[in-house]
Write a structure and sequence with these properties.
The structure holds two protein chains of two kinds.
Chain A lengths: L5 H31 L16 H18 L6 H22 L6 H16 L14 H12 L6 H4 L2 H19 L4 H13 L10 H19 L1 E2 L9 H10 L11 E2 L4 H19 L5 H14 L7 H17 L1 H4 L3 H5 L5 H8 L8 H27 L6 H7 L14 H21 L15 H7 L1 H23 L3 H4 L3 H13 L5 E4 L15 E4 L8 H11 L3 E5 H11 L5 H11 L2 E6 L3 E6 L4
Parallel strand pairs in A: 3-4, 3-5
Antiparallel strand pairs in A: 1-2, 5-7, 6-7
Chain B lengths: L4 E2 L16 E3 L8 H23 L6 H29 L1
Antiparallel strand pairs in B: 1-2
Classes of the chains: A mainly alpha, B mainly alpha.
Chain lengths: ~600, ~90
């Protein structure tokens, strides 16, 4: 009978249960953190200003558990997934758990679009550009009607967490078939979440369409693999020859790819992809074009057999724009094509114009830029270090930048470019830590000294902890960085409800800036008036503009006051002066809550 | 408005006896109307679906049939984009 040393027993127990215990401990700490956070005490830095130490301890515990699991000789799939799910809970579930109602005015407005379809069975023409791509709102209306709800408001609050968890399935498929190593795949998925500060997962068509984007790309790269050929040489001339083959005519004939799937399954997948492409074309302006670029990347790198899917996407997208969205472009064609080729102006509108406001706001914006720059730096290192059978993720990470040459997209084009490239950039960044070492396309840095060091288990654990925890902490700070004025209280909701009950069809509800839970009802009947001039904000202008227009009801709120102080540069306490001015000009306060007040127009004094 | 093309049709209506001109399409702008675009779009999508089906199921098409199919798709797609540009120019 052999005697097993106690140390070996402990190591075995730790190995078998350690990561699971850390995941459970992480959830327990998250619950404590949520219970200890007080929304009313939120400061200018947003969500992070009210987070308890348990949040950071729990996040650290989860990341350590994840690092230990992926550094094992064979990472256990179920454990890795469980730890990623807890990481997602920390990053995307904390705000909905802490904040009393859904954040972001746009999500409330989208609930209003949905409500209109529920009530009338069709969209409202010439109201808003988003209503020219109504697929997402129609689907939401279907869900509302099917579940017996009276409106979509119940969907708003937890939507970000739910949709991010749904993204996990296609992300895992992309990671598995991307050509990255198994560990790089898992770390890449974790990095996708840890660097996803781009708030595009609220109740919106773009959140749904991002799911379409991920599903289509996952299906395509899972279906087709590059046809095997001899291992390439590492010389520049050999690489140039391989690159030139990407543009050969034979690439269009489907001879450079193979699939191991049976023909009927491929056909069924193609039909499903066709349906998704059609749904995407009628529900979002930008996603179909991002899909075209990603599919072109797949075709060039032998991960898509033939170009028909690309042509089909283009036909659906342009077809809907031309025929279905005519309400949008008739009279506004310059909005679509006016910024073509103006890359400098687009980047200016997307980056430089956002670094404004108070020190706290500028800090948040600068950290966002730093996260993105660090991720792309790490991704560049990953691209140099990894070998593969195809350079799909490199090309797919860069392809969305083409969109910048076409559209500013309301100053959000660069955000969307980073967002559409994020699954691939994150996988490349993970490849800097765990590069795939074999493949017909050799690595640029095949024999770097770092390789051997990173292979040592302890070093890899520490590196993964540093990278994932660093990004996750920074994302915690910046993702909720606007919550000081974009997250709302119950008082705000009640104030807006009262305002709607006070106005009649054709009348207006006024506000200084659009930072209220507003737009969820009476679409097209009640007008919303915003007094601020965002190009050159000034309290005096806002006052005179409001008094000139004289909306029947005005809602003033703490969220608008904070926006003025930290983004627009208004003096502290400006809202009190503003309210006093309105009272002097015939408005009277109908009701007030700690965070909001409702004013009704009377006769001017 | 200039006629784009004319076809031979009856010169008078049998029912009313009114004179009927041979001009079927009176102006280029009629191509900017939705039915033309929808017809070309539908034809393109049907041919694309046929091409996807034939490639996926590895149907033994001759070289001539393949090239004809590809060329037809190419022409229809180009025609569709031309119609879209025409719509933009006409209505925007």
């Amino acid at each position: 009978m052999s005697v097993v040393p106690r140390r070996a027993v402990v190591a075995k127990v730790l190995d078998s249960t350690g990561s699971l215990v850390l995941a459970v401990l992480g959830v327990a700490l998250w619950v404590i953190a949520v219970r200890q956070a007080h929304f009313a005490r939120m400061g200018p830095l947003g969500l992070v200003s009210i987070l308890h130490w348990a949040y950071f301890a729990g996040l650290g515990v989860v990341v350590v558990g994840f690092s230990l699991e992926v550094s094992r000789a064979t990472p256990r799939f179920a454990r890795v997934i469980a730890l990623i799910v807890v990481l997602v809970l920390f990053l995307f579930g904390t705000a909905p758990a802490v904040e009393p109602v859904a954040a972001l005015t746009d999500s409330w407005l989208h609930a209003g679009f949905t409500q209109y379809i529920v009530q009338h069975g069709h969209t409202l023409a010439n109201f808003d550009a988003r209503f020219s791509w109504p697929g997402g709102f129609s689907l939401a209306a279907l869900v509302v009607a099917f579940t017996g709800q009276s409106n979509a408001l119940a969907l708003l609050r937890w939507f970000p967490l739910a949709i991010e968890l749904i993204y996990l399935a296609p992300l895992l498929v992309i990671a598995r078939f991307s050509g990255a190593s198994v560990r790089a795949g898992y770390v890449g998925v974790a990095l996708f979440y840890a660097t996803n500060w781009i708030y595009q997962d609220y109740f919106s068509p773009q959140a749904l369409n991002y799911l379409f984007f991920l599903v289509v790309i996952a299906a395509v790269i899972a279906c087709w693999q590059p046809r095997a050929h001899a291992v390439g040489q590492r010389g520049l001339r050999s690489r140039w020859r391989s690159t030139r083959r990407a543009l050969a005519w034979s690439r269009l004939e489907g001879d450079d790819t193979v699939t191991s799937w049976p023909q009927p399954r491929v056909l069924a997948i193609m039909v499903l992809i066709g349906v998704i492409l059609m749904a995407s074309a009628v529900s979002h302006q930008l996603t179909p074009y991002a899909l075209i670029l990603a599919l072109v990347a797949a075709l060039l790198t032998r991960r898509l057999a033939r170009p028909e899917l690309i042509v089909l996407t283009g036909l659906f997208a342009v077809g809907w724009l031309s025929l279905g969205a005519a309400n949008y472009w008739v009279g506004h064609l310059n909005d679509i094509f006016g910024s073509v080729g103006q890359i400098g102006g687009t980047i200016g509108a997307n980056v430089a114009d956002r670094v404004v406001g108070s020190a706290s706001h500028r800090l948040v914006v600068n950290v966002r830029i730093a996260i993105t720059a660090a991720l792309y730096g790490l991704a560049a290192l990953g691209a140099l270090r990894r070998a593969s059978d195809s350079r799909f993720i490199e090309v797919a990470a860069l392809a969305p930048f083409t969109l910048l040459a076409l559209q500013t997209y309301g100053g959000e084009g660069l955000l969307r470019v980073v967002f559409f490239g994020l699954p691939f950039t994150a996988l490349l960044a993970a490849s800097a830590l765990f590069p795939q070492r074999t493949g017909t396309v050799p690595a640029w840095l095949a024999h770097d000294r770092v390789v051997h060091r990173v292979r040592a288990s302890l070093v890899s654990v520490v590196l993964v902890v540093l990278v994932v925890a660093g990004f996750a902490l920074a994302t915690t700070v910046v993702r909720g960085g606007n919550d000081a004025y974009q997250a709302y209280s119950l008082g705000d909701v009640r104030a807006v409800d009262l305002a709607y009950s006070l106005v009649q069809a054709g009348q207006s509800i006024g506000m200084v800036a659009p930072y209220l839970p507003v737009g969820q009802r009476d679409l097209g009947k009640v007008r919303l008036f915003i007094a601020a001039n965002f190009g050159a904000p000034s309290v005096k202008y806002d006052e005179s503009n409001m008094l000139k227009r004289r909306p029947e009801v005005i809602v003033l709120s703490r969220s608008q006051e904070v926006w003025g102080e930290i983004v627009a540069g208004y003096p502290k306490g400006w809202m009190a002066t503003y309210r006093a001015t309105l009272l002097r000009h015939g408005y009277r306060i109908i009701a007030a809550w700690p965070s909001a007040s409702v004013l009704k127009a009377g006769e001017p004094a | 408005m200039p006629a784009v093309f004319g076809v031979a049709v009856a010169t008078s209506s049998h029912e009313t006896g009114e004179t009927v001109t041979s001009v079927l399409v009176a102006a280029a702008s009629v191509f900017a109307l939705p039915p033309t675009s929808v017809a070309v779009l539908t034809a393109s999508v049907v041919l694309l679906a046929l091409r996807i089906w034939s490639h996926t199921m590895a149907l033994p098409l001759t070289r001539l049939v393949s090239m004809t199919l590809d060329a037809s798709i190419g022409i229809l797609v180009l025609l569709f984009f031309a119609l879209v540009v025409l719509r933009f120019v006409t209505f925007a």
